[in-house]
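ZP: hey, is the adenosine-5'-triphosphate complex queued? I don't see it on the tracker
AM: it wasn't, my bad. submitting now with these inputs:
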Amino acid sequence: MIEAIDIHKSFDDKEVLKGISTKFEKGKTNLIIGQSGSGKTVLLKSLVGLHDITSGDIRYDDNSFLSMDNASKKRLRQDIGMLFQGSALFDSLTVEENVRFPLDMFTDWNLEKKRERANFCINRVKLENANHKFPSEISGGMQKRVAIARAIALNPKYLFCDEPNSGLDPRTSIVIDELIHEITKEFDMTTIVNTHDMNSVMGIGENIIFIYEGRKLWEGTKDDIFHVQNKELEDFIFASKLFKKIKENNG
Ligand SMILES: Nc1ncnc2c1ncn2[C@@H]1O[C@H](COP(=O)(O)OP(=O)(O)OP(=O)(O)O)[C@@H](O)[C@H]1O
């Protein structure tokens, strides 16, 4: 579990996160939703330590991130898998080399063991036979799978995904969402996904927090979200004509 405790984050005199507290649960896909500019990416980066927060705390399984010494932070980083916007693959490396990269960086395993682990991850995301291809030779959806395989290479306890569906068509987006959801269950990870895609919310939203102008305005599950009386959340959900129609049809 990851806990955010009253997180504030400012850039100069601009306060972007205004006191966010929540719990991201283990074995669940936790979604952070909100319109563009609401602070989702700043929150995600703050949670993994890419931004220093202005005040508050972050607890990883009850260990305060701010109180950790450098050695503990380094160990924690190896327990964190990250999936960035785009896929951030290395163009000059093959699929297998991309997936092996964190193992090359963080383990002292021999080549055979690293290849075995990389291939396990590649097979897990159903990319058998793509090992020797370069990113430019595979589709956007396949690149995203490679990025997922790389993110789980070190068998992380925590998985962070920033807009995993950006640039993908709706069908491929569903496949990627389902893959993230499946591996979360399979490896019992605490997964946090930033998204403004309502299809993702309805597909994999087990625990959702809604951010509006740097504040958490609501949290709940996909089953609750349509019954919430909150103007900002309704504006966010029903910005999509499809979801507006669904609501009208359900009375
Ligand atoms: N390094 C920074 N310096 C100053 N302001 C920043 C910085 N990073 C983000 N911001 C500001 O913080 C606010 C929230 O940005 P953030 O990227 O978290 O939004 P978001 O909800 O992730 O949006 P999107 O869905 O478009 O990615 C924006 O006003 C942005 O300009």
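AM: back. The pocket of adenosine-5'-triphosphate is lined by residues 11, 16, 34, 36-42, 196 (CB under 6 Å).
ZP: great, adding it to the tracker
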